Amino acid sequence: MALIAPSLLASDFLNLGRDCEMINNSEADWFHLDVMDGMFVPNISFGMPVIQAISRIATKTLDVHLMVEKPERYIKDFRAVGADILTVHYEASTHLHRSLQAIKAAGMKAGVALNPHTPVSLLKDTLADIDLVCLMSVNPGFGGQKFIENTYAKVRELKQMIQAAGSAAQIEIDGGVTNANAKALVSAGADVLVAGSFVFNSEDPIATIVDLKKLTS
Ligand code: DX5
Ligand code: ZN
């Protein structure tokens, strides 16, 4: 069964507490929190103060996805506001290996996200240091985009690399996840599915999360 990580980017910010309680009370596994800086991606979302507020009521893992240039500047700050997993982008990190060590030294699990154009083979020499690989199945920056089909091939290739290396890294898929692709993604090797608009734009988010869990079992 895959882990489900609803992305709060698609929540109702005027009712953020209510939406966090919904996740607490659902079968969801993680909170997925998208931080955007307006430089690495064209959009700006939210940052430390909002995550700190969420961490006060969240009863589940906080999975923080940094879509930020030079993310190493903020590793300790995100730990201080409650992040459990911190994911940086391969494309935004000049010294990725150092960042991964710093994330773990700060007490978090270390994730690396790959844009759709970035080959998974580029992770060969850091795989042993990675807890989570986030494969972007849309171009990062916005919720509600169409899933990129080439993601399936990337999941399969990455799964093989992870198995061959004897690594315990989990594979997370982020962008355009729905009940139409969840099952196939897990069959290809995905461990964690992020879902933003599919969960929060549905009539009954709790039931939608149950459906996603069932599809991936
Ligand atoms: C996109 C973000 C995603 C986004 C997913 O840049 O990283 O986490 O919230 O949203 P949906 O599920 O609507 O594609
Ligand atoms: Zn994300």
Helix vs. strand class: alpha/beta
- Cα Rg: 16 Å
Strand content: 15-25%
List segments where confidence is low: pLDDT < 50 over at least 5 consecutive residues.
none
Strand order of the largest sheet: 1-8-7-6-5-4-3-2
N-to-C terminal Cα separation, in Å? 4 Å
From the spread of the alpha carbons, the general shape counts as globular
CATH architecture: Alpha-Beta Barrel
Q: How many structural units, i.e. domains?
A: 1
Largest sheet: 8 strands, parallel
CATH superfamily: Aldolase class I
CATH fold title = TIM Barrel
The residue fraction in helices comes out at 25-40%
Mean pLDDT: 98
| Number of strand segments | 8
Small-molecule components bound: D-xylitol-5-phosphate, zinc ion
Assigned CATH class: Alpha Beta
Order of helices and strands: EHEHEHEHEEHEHEHH
